[in-house]
Amino acid sequence: MVVSYIGISSLNCSCFPPRLCFAKRKQSAVSAAMSDDPISDWILSEGNATQITRTSPIGGGCINNARRYDTDAGSFFVKTNRGIGPSMFEGEALGLGAMYETRTIRVPRPFKVGPLPTGGSYIIMEFIDFGASRGNQSVLGRKLAEMHKAGKSEQGFGFDVDNTIGSTPQINSWTSDWIEFYGKHRLGYQLKLILDQYGDSTIYQKGKRLVKNMAPLFQNIVIEPCLLHGDLWSGNISSDKNGEPVILDPACYYGHNEAEFGMSWCAGFGGSLYNAYFEVMPKQPGFEKRREIYLLYHYLNHYNLFGSSYRSSAMSIIDDYLLMLGV
User: Fold this and answer.
1) In angstroms, rounded to a whole number, what is the distance separating the alpha carbons of residues 124 and 108?
2) HSE-CB for 318 with a 13 A CA cutoff
3) Pick the catalytic residue: 37, 70, 231, 319?
4) pLDDT of 180-215, one tens digit each?
5) Would you call 319 a catalytic residue per the annotation?
């Protein structure tokens, strides 16, 4: 939801393994204590660099600090957070790794996640040099559909770890039924946060009534667990120097492919994107009726993160669905 970096540059990554590993390596007694600078240590060892020539800050982040590390082996992108342990970045890295492994759309390749010696955590990833625009929407639509088609889960709806949507926890407990998952871990979770934070019993009670009665919106369709970016807005979409789309800062999970468009109100998606998408992933009956149920999750999250200016949009969606469903 919140952009954490605004520019990432190309690095030849053939020397790195395709899967990110968080397993602890065996260490000598001398190196067993945490390094004072684990980021530079990794870059100068497993990153195959012999010299860091420059580091420079990258703006755009509201949650994390970001820096570019230039080396004789290429450039790396590093995010740090002094107040949060590695779990947040582990969730991001696992999501980036899952999208990377579909070999469909370009994402920054994650390399390393770890704790900082003074508290907090870091993630090291590929540095991609962004182009001048967000790229071709038709190409983005096709590649998103290809990712959804390739990234499937046999465990149901959810993800291997919980992660975050902006700074809000996102619960990803594996669930076999999509309506149950979306109702409990997406809408229901956000509604409870609103009740706890603002005492807004009106939106909570109406929202819970919608969750209880929303099953007819999903009749006569097939819902498969597809790998979703999960937070696809304009700040998380760019292109590389070749004009190929790049997506970043994910909140990944396996869900209904239509949920990917839940941030479309803040993404500027046009008809060409949807047309290209549906050529690969055909539109299912009732798509238009379900669109706003997926917007609702993100409006509720914005209400939780930024306050009551987003309340009216969320309430309007809830009221419209309660009227449509006659409940």
Assistant:
1) 10
2) 24
3) 231
4) 999 999 999 999 999 999 999 999 999 999 999 999
5) no
